[in-house]
Amino acid sequence: MFSIPVKKPNPDFDTLVKVLNGDVVPDRIIAAELLVDEEIKKFIIENYFEEKNIPPPSAQRFGSSKEERCMRESKEFKAAYKIYHKHLIDFYYRMGYHLIPDLEFYLNFSSLNTISRVGTDTALLSRGERYWAQEGKGMIRSWNDFESFPWDRAREMLTQYGEHLEFLSRNLPEGMKIAVMAALYEPVMEWLLGYEGLFFSAYDQPDLVEAVFKMWGQLIYESYEIATSMDGVGVIWHGDDLGFKTSTLLSPAHLRKWVFPWFKKYGMLAHSHNLPYWYHCCGNKEGIMYDLIDDVRIDALHAFEDCCSPVIEYKKRYGDRIGLIGGVDIDKLTRLDEGELRRYVRRILDTCMQRGRYVFGSGNSICNFIPVKNYMIMLDEGYKWR
Hints:
Elements: H1 13-21, H2 38-47, H3 66-73, H4 75-94, E1 99-102, H5 104-110, E2 117-120, E3 129-132, H6 143-148, H7 151-170, E4 177-180, H8 185-192, H9 195-204, H10 206-228, E5 233-239, H11 252-258, H12 260-272, E6 277-280, H13 289-296, E7 300-302, H14 311-318, E8 323-325, H15 330-335, H16 338-352, E9 358-359, H17 372-384
Parallel strand pairs: 1-4, 4-5, 5-6, 6-7, 7-8, 8-9
Antiparallel strand pairs: 2-3
Helix pairs in contact: 5-7, 7-10, 8-9, 9-10, 10-12, 12-13, 16-17
């Protein structure tokens, strides 16, 4: 079985990029994950590393009240912040990964969301509560709502983000890089406008929709500007789930009007700093693949589901034009027994490793409902492949 912690980690982010770009065809896997859930990380540190887990600082650290701001300036919080992030880097390093994912600015912005629904988290490694998107109306329903939204607070977060990235950069092991991440479309749909709010307003208030995308899109751009100036940042790995099983959630025409111009700006920014631009997108994306490849000009695609976007088929169709990341279907990773899972992983690798431009991993992320044993089996079978 795959042994963790890895005895002699040797991160080599530059080679990972060369593989995805088609400059190097590896004879064994290189692995990457968009994210490993905190609960999975805790279990591995305590049961595999046999060490004490360091939890993240208080979940209220991004709030805007006077008390919460004072807490962020306290010596106790600053010390906890540094210890946690050093351990976070150490986790990805000792797991054998070549990058550490960072969503700090996006998570900060998401703290402004006051309307998410809350339910019980029934995952194997439960976090107690799970938040669900607002399917009806969001926080912004009118121009008055748009004007009163705390955009100024979001701008303050940009300064905090620069300090955060500087700290991570100073503490990276040699050969390791930061993958900065944010989402444009998802927060607009899930809580700024809401599902119904976005879909109806696309026809009833298109100017308001455009204004929301413009405001949030610009903030993301500025966060990526800060990131691309840092030596420790190796890639913009943008993430926006545009689809479901049968199509995109908004029409391709609407995406071309409000979303893809921003995606293209993010890609141009990355490329102007000689950095790659990767894109994470769940759901059916067949109707927009050539937009992503030819117009947005992504370097690699991540997020695959066997029900609508199986990685093997995408490798056959697009593997000569872009790199592909991941592909082990989350449902199968969660449900299959060991023998079935190993055979399934081998089928993916037998196809996707041909001619390179493939980095191994899950189809989405290592969620807290995935059995840790199955995560280990996936890695073990991957590293056995030749």
